[in-house]
Every structure is written in C-alpha cells, then in structure tokens.
Amino acid sequence: MRSLRTNFGIGLALVLTVCTASFAQVQRIDRRQVTGLVSMGGQALQGAVVYIKVSPTLRVRTYITQEDGLYSFSSLQSHTDYLLWASYHGRRSKMKKISHFDRALDRKILLVIPEH
User: Which CATH superfamily groups domain 31-112?
Assistant: First the structure.
C-alpha cells in the first residue's frame, strides 16, 4: 500500500511539474512588445513622453525617449487593447490603437509629433 501511495505521489508531482512548465511557456508566448520611434519634421525626438493606455483598466504606462527617439513597452498582454501616443512640449501625436485582434506579438509603431 505504501508503494502505491509513493508511486501516486511521484506521478502527481510529475504531472504538476509538466503542467506548470507548459502554463509558464504559454504565458511567455502570450506577451506582446511595442517599440518604435518618436519624430517631428523627420528628426528623432529626445525627451518625448510616450504613453500606452490599457483599455479595460485605463492604466497608463509612460516612457521618455532618449537621444535616439526610440521607445519600448514589453510584457504586454496580447488579448488586451491598447492606445498609444506621444507628447512633446505641448504637442501630441495621433493616437494609435493596438487591437487584441491583431495577433502580431512584436509591433513597431512610428509616432509623429506635428510641427505646427
């Protein structure tokens, strides 16, 4: 009887380990990354603030561009809608919608700040 319980316990532990590893792999694959450039007049902007808003929760994350004008948001859920835009000295780019229907996990989006 003890041997049966021991074998059952080992089998259960193995199944749980495999299920946990599989779930963790699915979670990693299910993540999206949004990267891009903020520009004005064809020039990359240092110090622009890039906003990404999670639609269901209205939570906003920000990123301040460095001298290369690049931004990056990672670990975004692929089954969620997002709004993305940038601002620079009181001017704002158009909002870009990232839909959960878009299955691309790596998006590159150019955000243009109007000159006037």
Answer: Carboxypeptidase-like, regulatory domain (2.60.40.1120)
